[in-house]
Amino acid sequence: MKKTAFSLVLLLGLAAASCAPGNSNQGSTPAAATGAEATATATLNIRYIDLDSVGTHYNLAKDFREMTLRAVSKLENAQQSKAAEIQRFGQQIEDKAKNNGYISQTTYEADVAKFNKMQQDAQVYLSNLQRSSEQELAAQQQQLNDSIESFIKSYNAQKGYDAILYKAAGAYFNPALDITQEVIDGLNARYNKVADDK
After folding, report:
1. What is the pLDDT of residue 188?
2. CA dihedral in degrees (80, 81, 84, 87; nearest 10)?
3. Nearest Cα to Cα of residue 152 among 165, 171, 133
4. Phi/psi class of residue 128: alpha, beta or left (left: φ > 0; alpha: ψ in -120 to 50)?
5. Is the distance from CB of 58 to CB of 187 less than 8 angstroms?
6. Contacts with 52 (C-beta within 8 Å, 6 or more apart), sequence order
7. Angle value at C-alpha 128, between 123 and 129, nearest 5 degrees
8. pTM here?
9. Backbone dihedral region of 166: left (phi > 0), alpha (psi from -120 to 50 degrees) or beta?
10. CA angle 193, 194, 196 (to 5 degrees)
11. To 10 degrees, the CA torsion angle through 80, 86, 87, 89?
């Protein structure tokens, strides 16, 4: 009976030892998986680009920035011009009313109606101009994105990387994996500046 109890204790001890987290039998499976994962990770050929730098140094992006600044300036000038025109006409109405320049209430009301119409027309004009500028900006952004994406695809066809990531997609990348300057140089080499529409 003592021999059976001792055998039972020994078996339970072995069973407990084989289930323990530090057991070498169990440890070999995760170690093997970790080794396989490490091998898979080591064979991945990944690079990254800093999109902010591309936007700063790519000539197409620079040209689009200049066009955007011109569009903003055009909108601001139009707003100031329309505001000044409306203000001048409003001042004329006020001066004429103070100096009894209106021969009838009807002519005064006609000028006030004209003033109100000028405000409405200016608002519609400026709204259309702003919408047109926003559409142009969206088209430029799409063209810029397409250009960068197209270049990266052809660039990667030559290089054969498994992935090219944007730097903003991660918290840290080894600086040795940075191909930003190569991408900027390639983009600028194939960029043909389009004549400005003035």
Report:
1. 95
2. -100
3. 165
4. alpha
5. yes
6. 167, 168
7. 100
8. 0.65
9. beta
10. 120
11. 140
The tokens describing 195, both together, are 């004549």
Nearest to 183 by CA among 138, 140, 143, 147: 147
Tokens 């999109």 belong to residue? 51
Three-state SS at 59: helix
DSSP designation for 1: -
Token pair of 128 as six digits: 């259309």
pLDDT digits (tens, 9 = 90+) for 35-74: 555 555 567 899 999 999 999 999 999 999 999 999 999 9
What tokens were used for 88? Answer: 């001048």
| Residue linked to tokens 């960029």 | 191
Residue 196: exposure state from Cβ atoms within 10 A (0-12, 13-18, ≥19): exposed
